TrEMBL record:
Pfam families membership: HEAT (PF02985), Importin_rep_5 (PF18816), Importin_rep_6 (PF18829), TPR_IMB1 (PF25574), TPR_IPO5 (PF25780)
PANTHER family per record: IMPORTIN BETA
Cell compartment(s), UniProt: Cytoplasm; Nucleus
One GO term of the biological process aspect: protein import into nucleus
Domain of life: Eukaryota
Protein name (record): Importin-5
GO cellular component: cytoplasm; nucleus
Domain IPO4/5-like TPR repeats: 98-147
Start and end residues of each Importin subunit beta-1/Transportin-1-like TPR repeats domain: 197-344
Amino acid sequence: MAEQQQFYLLLGNLMSPDNNVRKQAEETYDTIPGQNKITFLLQAIRDASAAEEVKQMAAVLLRRLLSSSFEEIYPGLTLEMQTVIKTELLTSIQQETSPNIRKKVCDIAAELCRNLIDDDGNNQWPELLKFLFDSVNSDNVGLREAVISALLQTMEDQSNPRVQAHAAAALINFTEDCPKSLLIPYLDSLVQHLHVIMVAKLQELIQKGTKLVLEQVVTSIASVADTAEEKFVPYYDLFMPSLKHIVENAVQKELRLLRGKTIECISLIGLAVGKEKFMPDASAVMQLLLKTQTDFNDLEDDDPQISYMISAWARMCKILGKEFQQYLPVVMGPLMKTASIKPEVALLDTQDMENISEDDGWEFVNLGDQQSFGIKTAGLEEKATACQMLVCYAKELKEGFVEYTEQVVKLMVPLLNGVCLFMIISLTCARVRGPEYLTQMWHFMCDALIKSIGTEPDSDVLSEIMHSFAKCIELMGDGCLNNEHFEELGGILKGKLEEHFKNQELRQAKRQDEDYDEQVEETLQDEDENDVYILTKVSDILHSVFSSYKEKVLPWFEQLLQLIVQLICPNRPWADRQWGLCIFDDVVEHCSPCSFKYAEYFLQPMAQSLGDSSPEVRQAAAYGVGVMAQYGGERYRPFCTEAMPVLVRVIQAADSRSKENVNATENCISAVGKVMRFRPECVNVNEVLPHWLSWLPLNEDKEEAVHTFDFLCDLIESNNPIVLGPDNSNLPKIFLIIADGVANESVKTEDACSKRLANVIRQVQVSAGLWTQCVSTLNETQQKAIQDLLNTA
């Protein structure tokens, strides 16, 4: 402590106006060993009782030390000391209240980070990246400003292009994850900095041919525009001329990546600012893309421009809408060519493999017995992107795409590898040609889809196929599956569930093995996540079958019943119980009173699950109460009565609105509303209604929010005295609920209740005094939400 106080005195003397005092202090400071300097300087920065000028001087000296003497000091520190420095800096940035000190500590962190980037460009301080992500999304405005400011300052470090590129890359990550509302206050500063850097780097490209930083900056601009959306309109003219210039002139082979990223940037900006702003440039941009498209056959399979081009076309399709149809004859040929790429595969022995390197674009899977399966991956990413773009065109153009539907379906069906969403959209397109053509297309797909669910070994691909199959059944509806389909599907789903339980047992056995360690556990958890994801897709398929076939499908379902019951046993993992309950929720919702014959299997587990420690399980159980009240019929009445006090307890728990609990809580609130609305005999409505009103609106679960607003409209339209209050005294509260619902997009224009809510507001407008009273309690955002509702509903 005494040493630290002496150091503070030394820092004070370093700032002395007396030359002699200052010179002597500098000489003394120079004699202190580097490690001790770092320790004393860090303590000074972190000491809340130290004077601000002392802390400022300590911050300046520490940055100077890391800048001028990093190689002499830092590598010699113990790993523990290096960790302390990093931790102390990040803690100080979070806790420092002075903006000046915080800014200086950010500068130190930036300097340390710059020095910790190795010769290969790898960041040796990964914790900093996580901290920066958290900071940019933090509620602490000062912290966000300091971090963003430090990032921008680092990006302008012209003497260190690699550091600039890393800062730009970090900015891309931030803006991609940053909510729009947090980005907007810094948008002007961000954009102006990016423009200055882009202009400088464009000149550098012309004069020296260096392109690394410019590539990252172009992507940063695209990312900012993508997040800012219409707020980017004022900056459009600042960037578009330079970006078009790059696309027109960056034609050399070594600039292919830059050109591709610039094409991406232009299309993302166009999508962000909208058709009206982009249209004056749209024709010129389309001509640039068409020129590249014309030269498409000359591009190599691994040309980075291909995937950027294909994605850009899809964005242009979204911007132009139906007007894009005229370009289909130009883009479809190359797109189909890319989507049809067949990968080169080989079965090799060890000797053959010595002649092939993974750097040549090959990846290998060891098959044992000194053999490996190899696949050349060049072009595969472009193939996947092309397939996704075909989906986009079909989705955007609908009947405008119909002449390509059959050709593309015949390409897609044999692939079934992550592009199955096309099946759904192509069926939508096929409706234009009538029911016979639609049925023919579906039969062409259906057999292949079911067989693939039974045979596909890759879990990612399998989940995509299962998801698409479920969506197709929802689209086609009752009658789309014949008896053979049902028989085959039942056997496959039964096999998936049995495999799910078997895999869990195998993982538990592996946890008892003598070689079990953290690494093994990590692998087992990954396997478990994959299995659970497939379970969610089993649930999706059952949901689509129940919603399409209703109670007619129950005899078929009974072959799976005991396996679903097994999922909801109390000893099962929470994910099993969650999805098992979701399946029974579907049985109740879509099979109505007929579902009660299975009540013995799920009522007690559902009742116990309302108070489960897992929010996901609580949510599934609460949703079940709601559908029992709404659809289940008279025999579920005792259960609804018993569930009400449990639901209320969950809602009123102290942490019920925490991030991890809010969705479950909102499902409980919705369930209480459904019981009052559809089964009022199960509850004292007059007693519960004031509480229910105080819990509104629901901001996270948009689907359940609509149910609550529908019920609220019922209550208001029937002049319910409890909801309206004496002399309509509750109307300001109701206005607040409606305004927050609209502002949080819990109420959308297409929802039927939006017109009903707008009518409530219009009735209040008739009374000037009441209108003023209601509106005066709202903030600016809420008032705008009310006005938006009146304008659109």
